[in-house]
């Protein structure tokens, strides 16, 4: 397998942006490493001034501890807070407490950077009096950044999920017709028919026809059908509960999940606002499976604008707000990898 190596701090900071898909703000980003490879990337909001940081430390230590192979962490503390040489570093007490807690778990903080608007500084050596600031422009020209961009990766300025603002709502009559037909069917027969169409659509490469789109939109309006179609997305033969909560031992077929996201976005473009809630909720759950809490929250908020009482969106958004990740997102064996990073293995700093 081809290996990409991280040789400089610029490479590491570039990796943080590409792993998240956006440039973090007021965030602590932790990249897990072992002796040979890069593991998962975890982002949390920085605690606000005066906030008890115990919860933040517990949250990070909990998720780092889930990667049993991790022996070290490198971090980026992204903040617009002004800082000059000789001052206390931003969030110094928080970082020191976290470093101590991770050390108790056998995970060593190997390095870290204070990333500002235009420069970054080595956080761990920022109080030594040495000049360690570097321009962020170097991140854009780093070797790893160039390679990931070449492979199709991009870093957005915000963690926004690109949901079209104005869907084309021209399938309402067809959706209503299919809804009446499904309501008149035996529930088991309705699920079998919907699963067959869903499987055919996910196995294809093009867009579903208008009639197929209308039938899928109508099918997702029925809770039992919706849950079964959601559980079919990962392509695994496991219990529905474990699939919906992202708790299976085996990783999902992420390429199939990507295809499902594309299809659901297509359905959203054809759905009437009154029927948008199931489609948006499914998109949000996929984002949650992938560990993209901010994007999942945006989907659920858009869902609740369409239907304030849509229960599945309410419940899953509560998980996101509590900082709870799907089990898939907490293990390097099962975590989502963007298409451009599924091929090469990424080695640690200084490794060829």
Automatic annotation (TrEMBL):
Pfam families attached to this UniProt entry = DUF4192
Question: From which domain of life does this come?
Answer: Bacteria
Taxonomy-wise, where does this protein's organism fall, top ranks first?
Bacteria, Bacillati, Actinomycetota, Actinomycetes, Micrococcales
Known InterPro entries for this protein? DUF4192
What is the official name of this protein in its record? Answer: DUF4192 domain-containing protein
